[in-house]
Amino acid sequence: MWLALLCVSAGARQQAAVWNEKFKFKVEYPKGDEQHKLLLKIMDNDAFTEHDYLGQATLAFAMDEATADPSYLLSQLEDILESDPQIDEVGFIHPMQFTAFTEEAHGSPSLSSGAGPQLEGGITKPKPVRDGSSDTFFWHSEHKLGISTLVLVPLYCAAKDAFMDAYKRYRMLSESQVKKDEVLDTNPLRMTSLLDIVESEIMKHSRALLLLSCDFGTAWNARKLIVSKKQIFPMFMDEMLLSALVLSYSPKSERAWSHRRWVIKMIAGKCANLQEIVGRESELVKTLAENSKMNYRAWNHRCWLVSYMSNSQVLLELQSSRDWAGLHVADNSCFHYRAMIENLRQNKDPDALSGAEFHRTWKEELDWVGMLIRRYVGREALWLHRRFLSLVWVKHLAIDGQSTSCHSCCTSSEICDISIFVKEELMLLQSCTIIPDDDFGDYKAQATYSATYIMWLAKQMPMSFGVELQKFSRYEELKLLLDDVGKRCLWDSMKASCASIQ
Questions:
Q1: What is the pTM for the complete model shown?
Q2: In 85-216, where do the E strands start and end?
Q3: Would strands 118-120 and 2-7 be described as parallel, antiparallel, or unpaired?
Q4: Residue 37, Cβ density class (10 Å: 0-12 exposed, 13-18 middle, ≥19 buried)
Q5: Of 226 and 424, which is predicted with more confidence?
């Protein structure tokens, strides 16, 4: 585009010409991969003679949000996704960061940032730019994709419109195929070909749309409809790749996790390497849990996976989750996962762990949690997991007065000796109720958690633990501690339980 600018002198006495107004140009968007540029011809305005030619300049610039064609941007994004199906991470980048990313990818300063012109021989000359908008709004390297935040809104609108238009046509064609009296084309082969084309468009546009809006339920459901109709295994694997890509930037997306569970249900019983897929799923949860703390949805997905695991995988999960939990003691989701595995393992095969082996497994877990409690002060998740372990101990391993349910599974009095368990819990209470004389609040929280845990345990085992607790040297201090934190009701409840059996 050519544009002539006239420079007018500010006054007769002032020799130097000055710019005294702002210019606003309407530039037509170039077609295809043409370069974005503005050609300027500068003239000196003369009233009585021809205008004097001063020079000309070509300004090359990058598009901004106002000039970017959304449909062209959508095409660029879909081309990138089509050219590299192994993209495993997507992110949204501020426009100011694109220069650094491009320099790192190309090993030279960015040439697509629309930098200002350079002077060469007295005439303004711009820096060259790369053709197209992919370097301006999309960063793609080593299976990583970055999208500029500058175009998220127009790109989303374009992807949504394209998807909804394709989805509408798909439904019309599907209904026409079913209703013979409304068939648009009597040729069944042509109808099938049209459906295939529209289905391909839906899959293409929905993929771009879900990367921009991961909770767009209609897009997820449309993909389910088409994939379940085709029943082609590679398509199911493509769904796993897409949902993993969505989770790379939105690790708590319930829609994405639900979609993965749907895929696993669909291929279960038809896939020879299902155990391998389940193993990779568990590793994905572990990776995302490292990057997204307290990710309940990820751990809930991992809990769901256990029902598809083999016995050897369950044992491996117990060991790996124990290592992970030891480094993330504040994440209650992992401890809940371990508790679920232990329960499922026992219910799935009650004879697999019985007697001394069951006792040893639970004793090791209790000792491990006790070690973590002493090492990491004031972590409530550890105390909640210990409650679960103690409850299992009480129900299945310990003998509490009137209960004799453990006699059938125990081979020695030492295994079922409740006094050992009571003694160890009181020792734990003794070590955790010591509050140093400082302002470190975690010690007080530790004392509070230990006191409430002991009150709960005494209520579960009033005939043995409740009686022993009353002989505890710091018994009265527990009452004062519970009063300070407003939990006097626990003390009263424990006293009532003990009094009812005397």
A1: 0.71
A2: 89-93, 118-120, 123-125, 138-141, 144-148
A3: unpaired
A4: middle
A5: 226
